[in-house]
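Reopening this one. Same input as before:
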Amino acid sequence: MSGIAGGLGGPDEKTVQRMLARLRHRGPDEQGCWVSEQVILGQNRLSIIDPTPRLHPVTNEDGTVIAVVDGEIYNFRALQAHLQARGHRLRSRGTAEVVVHLWEEQGPAMLSMLDGMFALALYDRPAGRLLLARDPLGIKPLYGGVAGETFFFASELGALLEATSQVWEFPQGHWLLWEVGRSLDPLTQPPKDAKAYWHLPAEPPDITDPQTAVAGVRERLRRAVAKRLVADVPVGVFLSGGLDSSLIAALARELAPGPLHSFAVGLRGSDDLRYAARVAEALGTIHHEYAYDADELEAALPTVIARLESFDPALVRSAVPTYFAARLARQHVKVVLSGEGADELFAGYAYLRRLDRQRLHRELREVTAALHNTNLQRVDRMTMAHGLEARVPFLDLEVVQWAFRLDPSVKLRGAEPIEKWVLRKAAEGLLPRLVLARKKAKFAHGTGTSQALQAIAARLVSGEELRRAQQQATSRGDGTPFPRSREELLYYRIFRQRFPQRSVLATVGRTRSVVPGELGEASGMSNGAP
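Same output, byte for byte:
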């Protein structure tokens, strides 16, 4: 894992160094920079695989191909064996080095060979070309922007804004090749010549048999967890006591070669703390918990929103407990497994119950495609803020592809539809019955954080301020977000203090799973859900 940054077209080295300084939290173990007249590639490294100090960025044998990679390639051992059989000399056991050698073999086609989460930049010196690429679902972040005649990229907006005020998010599942000397007209959005190399399955679901569906989920999820336990440092699990995190914890406990640490947070007396303790006891994990109070929530908000790089209220609500959970976990491990993606793949949100079969399948596809700047952004930013790597087994591509083959009737099942039915059946025999029967509770609700944040916002923002902000947003008509509640207005104000650049607003994802009234005051505006 890393924070990466750099530029093409005569970038200033001091600027890139400032960008790397802003990304130090993402990779506190090592820092390296490769510098030429036209290209600079920089990286801060968090050592997970092969933690011995290495020279970064990584290069091929003769130094003609240079790469910086943020993320993990889970099939790196198979790729290393393939490359060595082809005569390549690898100088480390790290996952990033396979990228430069695969480029020599395959060019951009190599991206389809990488099983993992990644954002990368690679410079082919003889060809004078810079490659940018991002993993299929956007688990790892990547942003770009142009200042004058120079293109810059970085893992986070805060770092990129050290170089340019015009920023945009690089699309997930895409790659882009830029020639040295290419005309860099001001770009306020990703270049149109970025090419997609992966798409979410678009075919109609073809599996209706419940037993086939359950067996396929269990088999693929077990493989997904197993590959994400590979590390040269301790691995743990976030554990809220809900179905998703508990199932990941159960599989990890079964597959891990040694003791497993689990981590839970919440307000004192919250449901998540209570359920997580029961699950940890049943599974035999080494359990850690942290109980915070409303004062800590309020004090953490500016830091959380600055790190999150979003003001979406549902996202902020869940980011605060994730921030505390990551801080707790980093005291014991360097890697955690997390349950993100299950609700999107297997129909876990309450609003999905009112959709018909065809609309439900389309909606699940749309919310999964939007994860890159909603829940995946939250998990990445809050964990990396503490130098902690988060891995998301539910978003293994095998699991994703299987999930979209499943008919909605095995996801929402029964007269009063049970959400994530196929996942609950897959968890039978692995988890206590109280967890299998527990209804979906968003992380912010289960930890008690939602109610506390609503009360904080009600104290800090008046109803009159909300009405005035809504009127101003309506009258301007320039795309300024319409605040739906005092809580959202509070987050927006904090966000704009940290990010006054207007281009940043276009990178903010909006959560679709908000139910009417969840954010407090009714605004008269659609919440984004169908």
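So the earlier flakiness isn't reproducible anymore. For the record, The longest strand covers residues 65-73.
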